[in-house]
């Protein structure tokens, strides 16, 4: 009987509710597939600030590093928004990404046939959208040095950050982009701002150079402003997108909202080796926390991604995905994806239905 | 009889076609309103590179600086995409913005009742959208120092840019944001990434501080990734948005594409004093250049903005806007906004119809 160590990070807001459901789902599918999970729960984000005075306790990072995979819910909330940077929940998440070396963030934006009407896009535009955004996650503007505040001689203050990429950082994320595109529909669009930024010029140069190794992948380049438009004009033109950290933050969130059901979208963050980080793309939704209203499906699908990418347990992953589709096919909907004629359920109930369907 | 000096910059691609139409419109409305225009045409962008070996000839900048307003069409094209930075059309545009000190870029995104079906959004989501994006235009990541390429000791190369704002840069654009919101529906949303970036923390701090001077304006803050989502989920929640240069580039293009008719959208770039820059938000569309297919209406509406903001000629501005609406009401459409039952016209013909309607 295989056994895996999974660190569980409930985080903030709706985190504890949805991750509880996902852990139950993992347990059940484990018993069906002969997999044993050793779950260790740790604090991160606002919860860790409140209990331990830091958004990323050392013990949390060490435990994550020593596990086979990390399942995270979501962090953040209004409560900590005014904290200084080292006491923000977000800083804990960024430290976790850096500490695990998970430089590649895979964010699918898929319009499910059952939920096509959740999209604010016209049906004919939304139907069939299936995009994978590969976002660089441990470099660029988020981590670039120098950064900070400065007092100018004229009495003014300035705030500054640095957008920087090295050739090796670009190469390793570009490779994930090409490999991902190759396993999908063979189209890779690299998004940058090379008409203005030097960092983007280097990005474009390296991505272009690598394309000779992938003759089966059709590479295109798009400026980030144009990409933001094209995603709305005709999202079906995209297969795989590869881009830097801040552009990926914006573009992947835009792409996910095209589906109209971000409560359904999981993500995977992976490195060269070591445990990956699996989390829903949605936030911690503090306004509905503790009310049993959250949609747990993105968290459950994140557990499926964990099984597939971190543990190579493809069968178990597919079982979970089928159970989620089954729950939708039976007509059950949480509030965020509710539509006329469907049956409204809360977080806990949706979890039970997925468990039953499993 | 009043007389104004207007510098006309046709630029590249469809630029010459559409700006010719807009100049005719200005001439006619001038004769109706007793305004004399002294037009001086100059080269900028790719056209200037080809003829004079630089994207922003000194003579062009000086002429612009000495005029009352500048009407620009669009610059750029595949042809110059591989040029080094100082020989890119975009560098000419950035130099023009900096040289004119036009730090505030006003970009309306309005869904016209006649064109609501052009949007890829569902009718009930698109109908009534009326957003003004106030984008900082002469600072931030576009102009921040240091920038460039570096050879690291380990043999790697890096490319880097700096996102930097000073308090005075933030204050002056925030003020434009508040003033703009005050003249509209009184809601200002400031977009940043203050949960990660120091430059955004300073931004948020200064914008918040200024809000006490504008008790009649309701200020909110939104992270840029969330803004990219909310624009798609429910664009009607926005009135005025104020943001930095690169976020504004992305967010304003996204907002404009929500309308489905970017061929209709003008923009104004203004400074503390001196001539402003008026241009359509769409690009130079090299693929349809010279084919009489371009939509000249955004350029014509840019001329109306020029009359309003640069010259204070409100009557003339309204005449032009009414004529454009009139042309649409009569059912005439260029290819980009064509829909069943409407009459297809080219660029020249659309111009003639606006002139007649005037
Ligand atoms: C919470 C925040 C720091 C984070 C980011 O910007 O990366 C989030 O928006 C995300 O995309 O995972
Ligand atoms: C052409 C380019 C340099 C420019 C920009 O990024 O500012 C354009 O996209 C715009 O928004 O006016």
Automatic annotation (TrEMBL), chains A, B:
Entry note: cofactor: Binds 1 Mg(2+) or Mn(2+) ion per subunit.
One term of GO molecular function: NAD binding
Keyword line: Amino-acid biosynthesis, Branched-chain amino acid biosynthesis, Leucine biosynthesis, Magnesium, Manganese, Metal-binding, NAD, Oxidoreductase
Cofactor: Mg(2+); Mn(2+)
Domain of life (superkingdom): Eukaryota
Family: Belongs to the isocitrate and isopropylmalate dehydrogenases family.
The protein, known as: 3-isopropylmalate dehydrogenase
Segment of the intact protein contained: 59 to 416 of 426
């Amino acid at each position: 009987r295989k056994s895996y160590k999974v660190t569980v990070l409930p985080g903030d807001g709706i985190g504890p509710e949805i991750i509880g459901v996902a852990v139950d789902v993992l347990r059940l599918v484990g018993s069906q597939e002969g997999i044993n999970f050793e779950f260790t729960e740790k604090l991160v984000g606002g919860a860790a600030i409140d209990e331990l005075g830091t958004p990323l306790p050392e013990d949390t990072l060490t435990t994550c590093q020593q596990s086979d995979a990390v399942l995270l819910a979501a962090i953040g909330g209004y409560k900590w928004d005014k904290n200084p940077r080292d006491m923000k929940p977000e800083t804990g998440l960024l430290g976790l990404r850096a500490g695990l070396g998970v430089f590649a963030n895979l964010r699918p934006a898929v319009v499910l046939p059952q939920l096509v009407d959740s999209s604010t896009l016209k049906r004919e535009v939304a139907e069939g959208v299936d995009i994978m955004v590969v976002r660089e996650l441990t470099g660029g503007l988020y981590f670039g040095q120098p950064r900070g505040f400065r007092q100018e001689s004229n009495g003014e203050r300035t705030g500054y950050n640095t957008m920087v990429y090295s050739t090796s950082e670009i190469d390793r994320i570009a490779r994930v982009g090409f490999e991902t595109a190759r396993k999908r529909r063979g189209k890779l669009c690299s998004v940058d701002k090379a008409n203005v930024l030097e960092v983007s010029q280097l990005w474009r140069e390296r991505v272009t150079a690598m394309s000779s190794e992938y003759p089966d992948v059709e590479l295109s380049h798009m400026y980030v402003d144009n990409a933001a438009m094209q995603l709305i004009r005709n999202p079906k033109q995209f297969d795989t997108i590869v881009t830097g950290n801040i552009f990926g933050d914006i573009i992947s969130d835009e792409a996910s909202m095209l589906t109209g059901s971000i409560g359904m979208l999981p993500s995977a963050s992976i490195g060269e080796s070591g445990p990956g980080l699996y989390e829903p793309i949605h936030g911690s939704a503090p306004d509905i926390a503790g009310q049993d209203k959250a949609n747990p499906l993105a968290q459950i699908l994140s557990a499926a991604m964990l099984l597939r990418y971190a543990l190579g347990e493809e069968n178990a992953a597919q079982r979970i995905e089928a159970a989620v589709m089954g729950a939708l096919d039976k007509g059950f909907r949480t509030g965020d994806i509710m539509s006329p004629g469907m049956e409204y359920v809360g977080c806990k109930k949706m979890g039970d239905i997925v468990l039953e369907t499993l």
